Amino acid sequence: MSNFSPYSDHGYFALIKEAAAGTPLTPTSYMGFQSESLMPSFGIKPIQSIAGDRARHVRSVPNKVEVSGDLEFYVEPKMIGHFLRALFGAPTTQTLVASEAYRHVFEVTDTPRTYTFDIQPADAPWVHRFYGVQVNKLAFSQDDNVLKCTAGLTPRKAFINARILTAANSGTAVALDQTAGLVAGDSILIIQNEDGYTTVQDRVIASITDDNNLVVTEALNAQIDVDDIVVIKRATATYDQDLELTWLGGGAFYSGDDVDNVTAEDKEDFGLEFANEVEQRWFGGLEESDRYPGDVLTKGFIGSGKVSKFYDSESNLDKVRKNAKFGGRFLFQGETDLGVNSAVKASNSYGSGNGFSITATTAGKAGNDYNVTIVINDSDDLAASISGKNILIELANTTASKNTGTLIAAAVNALSGVDGAAVGAGTDQFTTAEANENLGFRTPASDTVGRDANEHSYLQFDMADLRLDAFFPNESEDENLMEEVPFTMYKDTRSGDQKKNWTSRVFLVNSVTSY
Amino acid sequence: MEDKPKVEILTSNGIELEKTTYPDGKERVVILDKPKLKSNPKKDVQL
Known about the structure:
The complex is a heterodimer.
Chain A: E1 12-17, E2 29-31, E3 35-36, E4 39-47, E5 59-74, H1 80-88, E6 92-97, E7 101-107, E8 115-120, E9 126-143, E10 146-154, E11 157-159, E12 162-163, E13 173-175, E14 187-191, E15 199-210, E16 213-216, E17 229-233, E18 251-256, E19 262-265, E20 269-281, E21 295-310, H2 315-322, E22 326-337, E23 347-350, E24 356-360, E25 371-376, E26 383-387, E27 390-395, H3 405-413, E28 418-422, E29 434-438, E30 456-468, E31 482-490, E32 504-510
Parallel strand pairs in A: 25-27
Antiparallel strand pairs in A: 1-2, 1-8, 3-5, 4-5, 5-10, 6-7, 7-32, 8-9, 9-10, 9-11, 9-17, 9-20, 12-17, 13-16, 14-15, 14-17, 15-16, 18-19, 18-22, 20-21, 21-31, 22-30, 23-24, 24-28, 25-29, 26-27, 30-31, 30-32
Chain B: E1 6-12, E2 15-21, E3 27-31
Antiparallel strand pairs in B: 1-2, 2-3
């Protein structure tokens, strides 16, 4: 008879973002997952000596603990934000409708964020904790039409269990060989060493004294022995998740000359991967927890992917042959209605109260693709132009009074697809070039994000400069000729004044206030 | 199909400007220092 059911569906996965990297917290958000392969490799170093005996393994000592693994889960619009935050860094969050809809924009930053994860193995009364966890990879694919993510995880440390160092049967002090990973407020179980299951004491941590001592809130009232096992007690899992995103009927790939001017392209399958290269580093130390990495360094970021479809065009071979740049987008539309609302026009304001505004003529999410670049003209004329959804404002190069908010608004207003209007008196004079930015995102706190009426949650991956990697549609007898087209994401620095200067942006719209 | 840019003088927000529309759909607008056409004089223009 088993101590508890080994059936894995009893288990849970919980997470919480850490306020300070590597400082554990008690996870409070739960999400379903498909599988995990997190493994703390408790290394052993055999002592192999010339010592008068042919046996090679004479003694052994503990070695470092390397921890890594993957978590596979189906993607829904709420919890995926945590993984995006962990890989990219904190997003820019904009309120679309208070208490209803928010847009979180993720972009590669220099500060990926760490998390504490608890994993309950099957129906065990305890969990295993990993903390200081960095997400080093997010690989998206479709699994029988459900958007699936494989997250590569690199924890700094783990609390799997600890051993009691001092026998006791009263008082609130507990001595153990590792407190690292425990948090005041955690419930712990002290279980018998003999069977590794029977609970001797069930207590809540009041405080952590040091690496080997803690205090519980209620005095011990049973005998705990040296080498009894301390584990973190499982919690009651509650879930707040949306319906999973899908590919057929829920997702699409778009491409075009640039990322703001893309159209849907027929693709049968896809793969998308964002990766941070990370490196675990160890420091000497006297504690059990010093066997784990002391830090995890973040190195380079790489984005890549693939799209596939049967071969019916020479377009992709043309692109790969010429290393041609193009913009790409994946959009996954959720099923959760984010409130009943009217469509909103995307809009930016410029100047200090007396400048101008640019607003998409048509309300809707598509308005967010309009983008604006301001440059200094070669002549003393104010001009504005639009190509697709790319707007270029050229300021008169000598006479500042030619560049008032009123005049710029008039020029923009004459362009198709957008409206220009003076703000206030329209007297602000503009003399400074400005890098490209989209409507709704130049000043995220005050610009208006375009949205569709009765908008649903969505997850959108924008890729500013895609280049195809080598592929070829090779033939096999009795097969339809396929193209599996791999691509790599580059930072768009080659589009002149209107370059994006970023590699990828991920837009997540849902009802979550912040990540 | 028109293959030449189309140039027109028009008024936007009360400001007179020159708008060029290219065959590929691109548009460019330049604010005029002085009105170039007198076919559509504005009431507020003092000659």
